[in-house]
Structure formats: C-alpha cells, structure tokens
Amino acid sequence: MPDKMDYASAGVDIDLEGSAVSSLISSLTKSVRPSGTPGAPVDLPGGFGGLIEFGDHLLALATDGVGSKLQIASALNQWSGVGIDCMAMNVNDLLCVGAEPIAFVDYVAVPKPDPIVHAALGASLAEACRQARVTLAGGETASLPGIVTELDLSGTALGYLNKGEAITGENLELGDILIGLPSSGIHSNGYSLVRKIIEHVGASYTDPAPFNCASEYRDIMRFENSNADLTIGEILLNPTRIYCDPVVDLIKHAQSDDTAYSVSDIRGICHITGGGLTNLLRLHDTFGWEINDPIQPHPEFDWLAEVGGVETWEMYRTFNMGCGMIIAVNKEFSETIYHWLIQRMPGAKIIGKVVDNGRKVIHSPLGIEFSHY
Amino acid sequence: MPDKMDYASAGVDIDLEGSAVSSLISSLTKSVRPSGTPGAPVDLPGGFGGLIEFGDHLLALATDGVGSKLQIASALNQWSGVGIDCMAMNVNDLLCVGAEPIAFVDYVAVPKPDPIVHAALGASLAEACRQARVTLAGGETASLPGIVTELDLSGTALGYLNKGEAITGENLELGDILIGLPSSGIHSNGYSLVRKIIEHVGASYTDPAPFNCASEYRDIMRFENSNADLTIGEILLNPTRIYCDPVVDLIKHAQSDDTAYSVSDIRGICHITGGGLTNLLRLHDTFGWEINDPIQPHPEFDWLAEVGGVETWEMYRTFNMGCGMIIAVNKEFSETIYHWLIQRMPGAKIIGKVVDNGRKVIHSPLGIEFSHY
Fold first, then answer.
1. pTM (2 d.p.)
2. Minimal CA–CA distance to A167: which of A87, A276, A88, A93?
3. Quick check: B106 and A63 CB within 8 A?
C-alpha cells in the first residue's frame, strides 16, 4: 500500500500561488480606459476576467500555458499534442463566458531553438487552429538559456460575443440541467501529481499501459503509426479536447430563429480544469450542484488513483475525471439541447442538476462533496 | 584591448532561431476563418502579422517577452521596471501598424511563486498599463520548477484600427522625412551581449556606473530613493519607453478635422528592436533610408562598445542607439508633425529621409550601412 498522495505533496503549493497572484492583482489600479470606449474593462458576475468593451461587442482574452505536461513531452520528445493542449486551455476558457474564439498567439521559451521541435509544434498548432476554428495571428520564440532548462509553451486566445449575451451563471435557476461533455483524458491539469505517481511506481512513459485502455468517445493520438500496445506516455500526452465545436455552434444555434431556446437558456458553462469539480462553485454564489449520473472516468484515472494511493475526493478536485466541460441549461430545453449536442459530441450526457443545497458540489454515486476550492 | 564581441558570440544564434521559426510557420496552414468574417487573417504589405478582421475594424495581436534582461532583474531582485518592458515590447509593435493598444495580458513562469516578487510585478504592470493606456485584461502565473530556473515574463497586447487606415510603409515616397523618438536606454534587446560584456569586464551590476550618466530626455528609474551614484544595474534595467503617447495621439490628431494632414501622411512606423537600424528595411521593398542627423546615443552604448570592443556597425544592428522608434512622414507635413511631436516627447528629432539608394540604411555621420537583416 503506497503512501497517500495528493496535489500538495506533489510540490504544488496552491496557497502560495494564490497568495502570489493576489499580491500581483492588489497592486493593480483601475483601468485608464473609460467606460464606453474600446478596451474599457467589463466586470461580470462569476468573476470572469479578460472582458473588454468594443462597440456592440465584448472582446475576451484568455492566457494560459500547458504547464508541467510539457515535461513529459520533453522527456519523450513528442510535441504533436502540446499545441492542441495550449489552444484548448485558452479557448475552452473563452467558451465559458459565451465567447467565440477567433485568434490565437503562441509564446515558446527554449534554452536553444530546435527546428525539428518547432516544426512539430507548428504542425500541432495548425491542427489546434483547425479544431478551434481560429486564426494563428502570431507568435514568439524566445531563446532563454539562462531562464528555461526545457521548452515552455503558453498562448493567448482572443474571442468575442455580443453585448448582453455573456454567459455568466447569474441567470441560473434551481432545477437547471447539467450536461457533461466527455474529456479526452487528463487534459492539461494535475501533471505534477501524475508525474509524481509515475515516478513513485517506477513506471516508464514508454511502458505499455498497464491497464485496459478501452474508453469510449475518444481517440488516443499515437506517437507513430503502430499497432503496438498503447504506452503510458501516449495515454498521458493525449491532447486536451477543444470544445469550440460544439459549444460555439450551440450558442449560434440558440441565437438563430431555428430553435425555441435562446442564449439566455444556456445558463452557465464550466471548464473543468485544475480544481476538478470545485470549478462549478465559481458559477453561482448560493446554488449547489448535484452530479447523479456522471460520465465514466477514463481508465487512467482509476489506475493513477490506485497505484498512487490518491483518495477519490482528491482525484475529483484535481482532475476532470472524464468530464471536461459542464453546461447548465434551462430544464425546459434540456432534452432538446442534449440531443443537439450528442449528435455533435458523442458521449455528451445529462449528469445532474442545479440544487438548493448551500453551494456545494455533490457527486451522489460516490458520496463525495465539495464546498470550497 | 578585449576580443571583439558581437551578438552571435554572446550565444544567440539568430540563424538557428530563424530556422526554427520558419519550421514552425511552414507547418501552418491557411486560416480556417473565411475572409469577411471576424477573425479572418489580413495580409498587409511589409509583412505585418497579427491582424484580423473585425467588422469595420482590424484587430491586432502582439506577443513578446522581456528576454534575458530578466536575468539582470533576477540577479538584483529588482522587478519594478520589467512589467513596463514587457508592455513596451508589445504595444510598440502594435503602434507600427497604426493600431491603438487597448488591452494586455501577462504570462509569468516561475520555479516557485513569491508574493513579494509578484507584488512588485503587479505594480510594474499597473504603471505600464497607465503609460500604455490599456486595460490589464488577465494574466497567468505558472509554477514550473522543472522547466524554469528563474522568472520568465511575457505578454500579449491587443489593439485595433479602422479598416483602410493601416500604416504599412506601402505608401512611402522618396523624400519622406524620418522623425526619431528618443529611447530611454537599452530597452529590451541585446541583453545577451550586454551581460556578456559585463561579465567580460568583471563589473558588478551594483557598481557605480563608470561613465557620465547624463543623457537628455530620459529619467532613470532608481531602485530606491537615493542620492547615491547611479549603478550599472539601474542604467541597464531602465525600463523600455512606451510610445503610445505620443503615437496614438498623433494618429488620432491626423484622423481629426483639426489638421491638414491625414493618417495616410504617416507613411511608416518602425520599432527599433533587436535588429537595430536594420528594422527599417522591413518597411519597403526598394527604397532606402538615410540617417544624416541621428539622435545622440546614451552614454551606456559608448561604454559597452568600448569595454566590450564591439564594432560600431555591430552596435547599430543590435541596439537602438538612442532612438527607439522612427516615424516616416510626408515631407509636406514633416515640420508640422515634428513640432507637434516634440511638444509631447522632448528629444524627438528629424533624423533623415527616405532615399533611392537600393534598399539600404545609411548612417551618414558614421559612414555605416546595412542592406540586410
């Protein structure tokens, strides 16, 4: 029986990060751009950042990196997925406020440029642009041998929405239905813990995966065309799912005259990132969330929990556990929207509802709950 | 007499960087966003990237980092200027196409978050936002102990312009007048060479500057309130000048009915970055550039050239040499624009003109020229 592992013991001090970020933010003053002019900041309920005014529209910026998943990519010299991870982390955040992503820029810091690595990154970013339906509008590669010891990749996505159509969670109602969208694997969060578990069990990323990889509703990106067994590395580096299709199309459909529901019936959208299910708590100040029919987690989550001795509660506040995005919709249209979604993303599932339980997330089948992040 | 130093010997392989970036770009396919829709890419003469369509406007993204100047900030634990550097590198690029910067996001990668460092960065970014007149629309701090050994800082700026008012250099005419805007020091380029020279001469960043620091038209940001001699570190970390004021205001003035000239009389804008004067060559395919009355370089450039044994030619293709931005304007309005600019930025100066010399930059007083970058 291994020692219990958790995210904090993997070397990530969330409190210290929060304290550092708070320090930075508290140093900032109000924007110099007055309300009503391009670039004026827009404060929305739910604490969404990154929104600014632009005429009849709002523009939204999201910036994020791939994080320590890159260390596995470096170890294996496999870069075909990380451009997709980088794109996904940013555009999926934009979707949560109802913005359509339109452009992306990447930032790569390396100790020394390597044309072969960059060609692979370029191909990965091109595929990411195709999946997210955005223009790659620039990028920067910095050689910083005194600062980085291996490649760091981050990016910024730009999106837009119509004024008055931001999706923030403020219109949530009790009984709203939660539709979960399947993830493609671990996505891009929790890799400090993943790497610690792999090290702990003495596994190699090139080992065949010691578990049944069968998992519905996803493909694994192979490192090369091969009929050989999937490796642990291939499972762990499977790129993050980009949810632009179907979420952007759902919003456009709601805006159209083709349907009875409108954008205001899409009450909240949640990207399940580093905090796992606790991310839902950001969407509303008082309502709670009951997951009673969850999406089945991919086998790698079970394996990591087992060999790492990670408690179920810890798993669900660290990883997406099979469900990368949750959309809360008006109950009246939930079946319609669900049927629309599942045609575009097999594995989409009605997983629960908005409840009046004192701002908690309850995963009923497992009997676990979260009241803070 | 020290050995000759140049940028390549400082460990920056520009050819390798170019090759890596080419590899990345060649892997990219055409944008999936069709012409006429938000986010469709806009190709302009002069190779400006980062522009996309957005209704009656174009949006522009720029992404860049502070680079190895950060290593001096780390060595001295002095962060008050680097937020301004980061902002400047991005917004000054946006200005070159005639875009008004409106928003910015930062990306910080650290081995371990430090609230004190982040508070200083936050204050620096707040001052940068004030100077650039943009909204800080978000940011990300990543803890990546396996990837970075010290702090890396980059960012992305968003700007906009009216369709049809992009400033690209394509309307340049022979005889157009070059107005130089003074830099505040070394800005954020060439620091691999700077650091190598400092190491070569055995100087310490905390030594008093061994040269007369007097230099018109700039203030040095002191590390603390002090009447002590300026140190080498203070000179080297002086933040990059942000040119939004006066350039944005010049463009707005040109758009107004208050003046005889229009935006089309501002023919080209060049941010003097890592390539020094060679940056001008990007603005036009056939015309050349004659600098006959340059801005006086700051004393630190002379000192670095002398103690580092760096040839004059190398200095002018590595550093800004006192002039951080060059604006090419219609000769007919050049005196008017010059007088308008100098009231807002003392030290602005008419430095030369556009000539028909076979696409070269000639610095006449020094007798040096550049025909490629």
1. 0.95
2. A93
3. yes
